[in-house]
Amino acid sequence: MRVTVRLKGQLCWYDKERRKEVTLEAPSLTVRTILQELGIPESELYMATVDGIKVSLDQPLKDEATVELLPAIGGG
User: 51 — alpha (psi -120 to 50), left (phi > 0) or beta?
Assistant: First the structure.
């Protein structure tokens, strides 16, 4: 299985090369396993979408899916 992961905002800081788009390959993937693979704490994530649809962290992904990870934003 191969998926494209788009890292929005400061989430790209978790990639060593600070890429905004990463391709991952594994026998099976969920949003949660993607976060673990990239070293992104769940607390940093506001929302995940797969092919434009909001999904839960444990949603099984399909081959060639596009996952967007949107960061939690704080302010004051």
Answer: left
